[in-house]
């Protein structure tokens, strides 16, 4: 296969393309196999994209299969959250959702077959003894004293395990592979253990459960998965994956590894994310600071942006760390096209238009300048308005184009104002600003001849609504929190959430809907929070307007 032939294809596409051209496979069938022991994170988003995208590209299909073999950590809550995340990303799985637990009877039969072939045995060693037997990769392990027990005895003990006659930890079923292998996963790995725990789907039907390495590959085979694509940490599991398929003489699914998604300032470990939740450092799995898909959705990240991000980062064979700025740049690009525009004043100071004698003036503003079909919204100007406190300066420097005494400035979509004066308290804090407006300077109808270089966003004092803004910083202070094993908690940013209760918004946002994104002019992109109520309107800041990553790429 020449390089020219596969020009433009990544290595997974090269493999699939070759399999189709050779006639090995007519139909491509992939799978996404999450364990329902936590919420999905940004790394899973990449795995979802790879499996569903490649299957779609080649006219194939993708199974959603829950590898639910550890009832101690699994829950229906996680199952439902995973389904919701995949659907939100815009993917449809083949047929119904599958579960490894659907195959417990078949897997048990496979295990008995291995025993009767002399390829598996019941081991009554303790966990510590088994670990000691395996040793280290640089020297051979030691065979278990139970390794050569009679087949009939192992089969009888295995059936008694299934019948619930033994306590947890009393014995395990191991496959007889190679205790001298430099691959530790091949040193007689455990494939069944006893757990008297209620399973989220099968209840108390079973008290023995297959290990992931056994259930995963055999489930792939049962479902006729052609390409079992997984992240690089499973590379050393591939030898056992193939060994079991060969010994059981079943459909030969092929495992292929790709580099996992690692993003700076983000954790891609469900165990560590759970710790953040349990210790109250975040509110829940879907906290907008979390790198979970549900957290990013709640924060306002569009599904399209995550898919664009996956595409831009590509499919690699080696792990690397992707800058979070690239992800944020993808989010901005999508939101710039889709977000509705609105005006919100985050730190209000009152402006009185002294010569405004009308009750009000109706102003039309576009909902989204990138989308003509979005139409227009109505903004109402009254005599008293609010602007940003930082948009007024008593003694401004040169080239200051915002509001200042004896200066002109335009209101967004409205009139040009001339600042006549202000009132301050004894400490010099500005309390009110006094302006006059040019009646013939209305935006779109300006015949005043007055030029104003600056434009300010504003809200009316009469109908502005109070909103709470939640601004988020990085959840971690270190760009590589995954590199700090158990010490990662010391790098949690305790100031990653700042709440603003002073903000005022145009009334248009009173009817903001969950899942809709808004660009608050000059402030960033926001979306309404799922905990928002009629009496407390909460907006999460999705991302700011400045795109440092995109600018850095242009240099």
Structure description:
The chain has 555 residues and is α/β, with parallel strands linked by helices. It folds into four domains: 11-102 and 211-261, Rossmann fold (3-Layer(aba) Sandwich), CATH 3.40.50; 117-209, Glutamyl-tRNA Synthetase, domain 3; 270-340 and 468-554, Orthogonal Bundle (Glutamyl-tRNA Synthetase, domain 2); 344-457, Beta Barrel (Ribosomal Protein L25, Chain P). Helices cover 26% and strands 22% of the residues. The chain has a seven-stranded mixed sheet with strand order 21-18-19-20-14-17-22, with no helix packed on it. A hairpin with a 3-residue loop joins β27 (517-520) and β28. It is elongated and about 100 Å long. The model is unreliable at 1-6 (pLDDT under 50).
Topology:
Elements: H1 11-22, E1 29-32, H2 42-57, E2 61-66, H3 76-88, E3 98-99, H4 104-116, E4 120-123, H5 127-134, H6 151-162, E5 172-175, E6 190-194, E7 208-210, H7 212-222, E8 227-231, H8 238-248, E9 254-258, E10 262-263, H9 270-278, H10 293-299, H11 303-313, E11 321-322, H12 324-338, E12 340-342, E13 344-345, E14 348-353, E15 361-366, E16 376-381, E17 384-388, E18 408-411, E19 416-424, E20 430-437, E21 455-456, E22 459-460, E23 465-466, E24 468-472, E25 497-500, E26 504-505, E27 517-520, E28 524-528, E29 538-543, H13 548-554
Parallel strand pairs: 1-2, 2-3, 8-9, 10-11, 12-27, 14-20, 18-21, 24-29
Antiparallel strand pairs: 4-5, 5-6, 6-7, 13-26, 14-17, 15-16, 17-22, 18-19, 19-20, 23-26, 24-25, 27-28, 28-29
């Amino acid at each position: 296969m020449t390089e020219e032939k596969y020009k433009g294809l990544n290595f997974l596409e090269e493999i699939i393309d070759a399999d189709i051209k050779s006639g090995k496979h007519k139909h491509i069938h992939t799978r996404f196999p999450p364990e329902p022991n936590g919420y999905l994170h940004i790394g899973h988003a990449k795995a979802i994209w790879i499996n569903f995208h490649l299957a779609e590209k080649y006219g194939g299909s993708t199974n959603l299969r829950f590898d639910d073999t550890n009832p101690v950590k699994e829950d229906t809550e996680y199952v439902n959250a995973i389904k919701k995340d995949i659907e939100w990303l815009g993917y449809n799985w083949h047929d119904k959702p599958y579960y490894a637990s659907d195959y417990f009877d078949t897997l048990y039969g496979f295990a008995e077959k291995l025993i009767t072939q002399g390829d598996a045995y019941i081991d009554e060693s303790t966990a510590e003894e088994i670990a000691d037997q395996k040793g280290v990769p640089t020297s051979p392990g030691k065979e278990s004293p139970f390794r050569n027990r009679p087949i009939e005895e192992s089969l009888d003990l295995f059936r008694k395990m299934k019948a619930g006659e033994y306590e947890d930890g009393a014995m395990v079923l191991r496959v007889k592979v190679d205790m001298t292998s430099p691959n530790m996963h091949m040193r007689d790995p455990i494939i069944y253990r006893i757990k008297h725990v209620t399973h989220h789907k099968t209840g108390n039907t079973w008290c023995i459960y297959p290990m992931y390495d056994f259930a995963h590959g055999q489930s792939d085979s049962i479902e006729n998965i052609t390409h079992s694509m997984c992240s690089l940490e499973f590379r050393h599991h591939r030898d056992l994956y193939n060994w079991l398929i060969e010994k059981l003489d079943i459909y030969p699914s092929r495992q292929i590894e790709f580099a996992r998604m690692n993003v700076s300032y983000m954790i891609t470990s469900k165990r560590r994310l759970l710790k953040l939740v349990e210790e109250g450092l975040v509110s829940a799995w879907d906290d907008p600071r979390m790198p979970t898909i549900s957290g990013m959705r709640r924060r306002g990240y569009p599904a399209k942006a995550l898919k664009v991000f996956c595409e831009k980062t590509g499919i690699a064979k080696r792990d690397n760390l992707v800058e979070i700025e690239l992800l944020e740049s993808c989010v901005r690009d999508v939101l710039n096209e889709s977000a509705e525009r609105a005006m919100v004043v985050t730190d209000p100071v009152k402006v009185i238009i002294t010569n405004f004698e009308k009750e009000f003036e109706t102003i039309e503003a576009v909902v989204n300048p990138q989308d003509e079909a979005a139409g227009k919204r109505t903004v109402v100007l009254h005599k008293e308005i609010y602007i940003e406190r930082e948009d007024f300066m008593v003694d401004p420097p040169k080239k200051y184009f915002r509001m200042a005494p004896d200066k002109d400035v335009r209101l967004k979509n409205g009139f040009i104002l001339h600042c006549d004066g202000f009132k301050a308290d004894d400490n010099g804090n500005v309390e009110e600003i006094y302006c006059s407006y040019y009646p013939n300077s209305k935006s779109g109808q300006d015949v005043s001849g007055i030029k104003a270089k600056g434009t300010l966003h504003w809200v009316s004092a009469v109908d502005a609504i109070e909103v709470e803004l939640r601004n988020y910083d990085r959840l971690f202070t270190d760009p590589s929190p995954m590199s700090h094993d158990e010490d990662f908690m010391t790098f949690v940013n305790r100031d990653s959430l700042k709440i603003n209760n002073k903000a005022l918004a145009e009334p248009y946002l009173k009817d903001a809907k969950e899942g809709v994104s808004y660009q608050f002019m000059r402030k960033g992109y926001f979306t309404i929070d799922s905990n928002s109520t009629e009496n407390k309107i909460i907006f999460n800041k999705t991302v700011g307007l400045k795109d440092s990553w995109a600018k850095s790429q242009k240099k």
